[in-house]
Design brief:
The chain has about 400 residues and is of the alpha/beta class. It contains 13 helices and 14 strands. Strand 4, helix 3 and strand 5 form a beta-alpha-beta unit. Helix 7 runs parallel beside helix 8 and helix 8 runs parallel beside helix 10. The longest helix is centred in the middle third of the chain and has 17 residues. The two termini are about 30 Å apart.
């Protein structure tokens, strides 16, 4: 299990000894980080927040293309969100997704079950029926607006031993916004999304966590107030974790452009919010980095900031961004990056590591080009960014699932 992961070191270069290095990795149980002069072998990365769009929206992404893209990014385990058609809100609907995973996934893909029927926020889904097959319960893409319904969901999830994984968004505060309600929105005449639309529901839910004792995980936090609320909840001993995405850690609304590839939900926030997120990583308030990989068609992302669909892709660029802009400047260590990208999410969601690892060439330099993505989605705010780090190989359960 993830709590048995330990760090080990291998010396020597990759080069002609590639097979020897892979063999050494496979023979080392509980592997964490292997170092060589140029190459590092990490445990297989784990992303607890992706959208693979199948069934229902396979023109955006499929289990096959999504899992291949994940393997290219060094990921061997992902958890998929339930905004699908049909929504996995009962076993029959969930089985359609599980069949796609069984047929086409090249890595471990574990779905979430929906909290409410159809993700409509009106009636609880069949949580008990889905519990044996899912990582937890989420209505990601839609916040649960009813406090009473969220209380019911938490009580049911607590009894089933599963976490509530919350997309926190108060619809009454959105007011048609689509980017952060900050300086860029004001300067360019855009409607903004206020920070309270995120931290308000978090504050509500944390009170319910205290009442119900449920395991609670907050998706993609983006505001300084969210960080502080979760910091306080942890100090009180609540069973709470959270994630943020690479884009929130290295970008802010001063970097926006009039392009749909900069539109995601939650939006890029202020420089002060970004700084608070980085501090939250460093002090342990933020437990993990998750990509919220959310592919759309080129047409859906070609309508500017106002009318493009929410969501950007990120599973193929996560480590190069984290390594180049957080590790190389000395903000994070390589061990901390491994903790955030692999170890912490596996511990929180009780996901085994097995013989999973990825090999990275840390000296390889490139410019992010969406045309090279294996994902069907190409919309990334990091297009044109210079990065270091190239995944040379990914191994899942002892089997090679990606090689550059």
């Amino acid at each position: 299990m993830a709590d048995k992961i330990r760090a080990k070191v291998i010396t020597g270069s990759l080069g002609a000894s590639f097979s020897d290095l892979i063999g050494a990795a496979l023979s080392s149980p509980g592997l964490a980080v292997f170092n060589s002069p140029r190459y590092v072998i990490f445990p297989g990365f784990c992303d607890v927040h992706v959208h693979f769009r199948e069934p229902g929206f396979s023109y955006k992404e499929t289990i096959k293309t999504g899992s291949k893209a994940a393997a290219r990014g060094g990921y061997t385990t992902v958890c998929t969100m339930p905004n699908l058609n049909p929504v996995p809100d009962n076993v029959e609907h969930l089985n359609q997704q599980l069949a796609c995973i069984e047929r086409d996934a090249c890595i471990q893909v574990i779905p979430y079950g929906a909290i409410t029927l159809g993700e409509k926020g009106e009636t609880l889904a069949d949580l008990a029926g889905m519990a044996p097959y899912v990582a937890g319960f989420s209505d990601d893409g839609r916040g649960v607006q009813s406090e009473d319904l969220m209380r019911q969901a938490m009580r049911r999830a607590k009894a089933l031993g599963k976490p509530i994984v919350a997309h926190c968004e108060d619809n009454s505060l959105l007011r048609g916004g689509y980017i952060h309600d900050g300086d860029y929105a004001k300067a360019h005449g855009h409607r903004g999304i206020c920070s309270e639309s995120e931290w308000g529901p978090i504050a509500r839910d944390l009170k319910l966590v205290k009442e119900t004792g449920v395991s609670y995980h907050v998706c993609h936090i983006s505001t300084k107030e969210s960080v502080e609320l979760i910091r306080q909840a942890k100090a009180e001993g609540l069973d709470v974790t959270c994630e943020t995405g690479p884009h929130y850690l290295v970008m802010d609304d001063s970097m926006l452009q009039e392009d749909g590839r900069f539109k995601m939900n939650p939006p890029l926030r202020s420089p002060e919010d970004r700084e608070a997120l980085v501090q939250g990583l460093l002090d342990g308030t933020i437990d993990m980095i998750a990509t919220d990989h959310a592919p759309h068609s080129a047409e859906e992302k070609a309508k500017g900031l106002e009318k493009s669909a929410f969501g950007v892709v990120g599973i193929e660029t996560a480590f190069p961004i984290v390594y180049t802009y957080l590790v190389k400047p000395g903000i994070l260590t390589l061990d901390q990056a491994a903790e955030l990208l692999c170890i912490s999410p596996r511990k929180r969601f009780n996901l085994d590591l097995g013989q999973d690892f990825c090999v990275w060439d840390l000296e390889s330099e490139s410019v992010i080009d969406p045309k090279e993505f294996l994902s069907l989605g190409k919309a990334t705010p990091f297009q044109g960014w210079k990065v270091f780090g190239r995944c040379a190989a990914t191994v899942r359960s002892g089997q090679l699932v990606y090689q550059a």
